[in-house]
Design a protein that fits this description.
Layout: E1 17-19, E2 33-35, E3 62-63, H1 67-93, E4 99-105, H2 110-122, E5 127-129, H3 134-144, E6 154-159, E7 172-177, H4 178-192, E8 200-206
Parallel strand pairs: 2-4, 4-8
Antiparallel strand pairs: 1-2, 3-7, 5-8, 6-7
Length: 207
């Protein structure tokens, strides 16, 4: 999912509501949760591969990887996640601890949400490490989506998303509706804005 820098608007009938949190008392841990609704996607960071490319039309989300490819990527993602978790624990022990939870609602981005749930059920990590470097994110995206077929009206969606280090260039990739992809990317982008590199993000789904 492309990570877009558009703000979220609160409103009736599906507007996203960002609930800001402070530091948990006595812990130094910054917490915040985003709940339900659509992101209004405007100008923001578009990573390479985000523009729909005309090819064979399709109407539903389709896996871009074989079972074997997905299993190989899963092993690499799990190994990287273990290393990053250990690094984060060491950093947090010294008081440098940033944590946040972001919810991708099925009501706003159903295909993105299903990809998140499917990938996490397979064993891909749910706690991710934010990388504030857009150049590194583009590189991860380019590697993860290399050779992935493009379909009209669809975009390759990655889990973990390219903005997170656990992507590592070996994410689960699925072609989904481009609008769905932009909504989920907008939600994530709005919620990581201003966060320090290394912030630990728990990415989950909601109604």
């Amino acid at each position: 999912m492309p990570i877009l820098g558009a703000p979220l608007l609160a409103g009736a009938g599906g507007g996203a509501i960002a609930l800001g949190g402070g530091a948990a008392a006595g812990t130094g841990i910054s917490t915040s949760v985003l709940v339900g609704g659509a992101a209004v996607v405007g100008t923001g960071l578009l990573l390479s591969g985000d523009t729909p490319v005309n090819s064979t039309a399709t109407g539903a989300a389709v896996s871009a990887l074989t079972s074997g490819e997905l299993q190989e990527r899963l092993k690499k993602a799990q190994a990287l996640a273990k290393q990053l978790s250990a690094t984060a624990a060491e950093s947090c022990a010294t008081g440098n601890c940033c944590q946040k939870t972001i919810v991708i609602p099925y009501s706003s981005a159903p295909e993105s949400a299903k990809h998140i749930d499917d990938a996490q059920r397979m064993g891909f990590p749910s706690v991710l490490t934010y990388d504030a470097n857009p150049i590194a994110a583009r590189a991860r995206r380019a590697t993860s989506t290399s050779g992935v077929p493009r379909y009209s009206g669809m975009e390759p969606d990655e889990y973990p998303p390219a903005a997170f280090m656990e992507n590592g260039g070996h994410a689960s990739v699925r072609n989904i509706d481009w609008r769905d992809n932009r909504v989920s990317g907008g939600i994530i982008g709005a919620n990581v804005k201003g966060l320090p590199a290394g912030c630990r993000i728990t990415l989950i789904t909601g109604p």
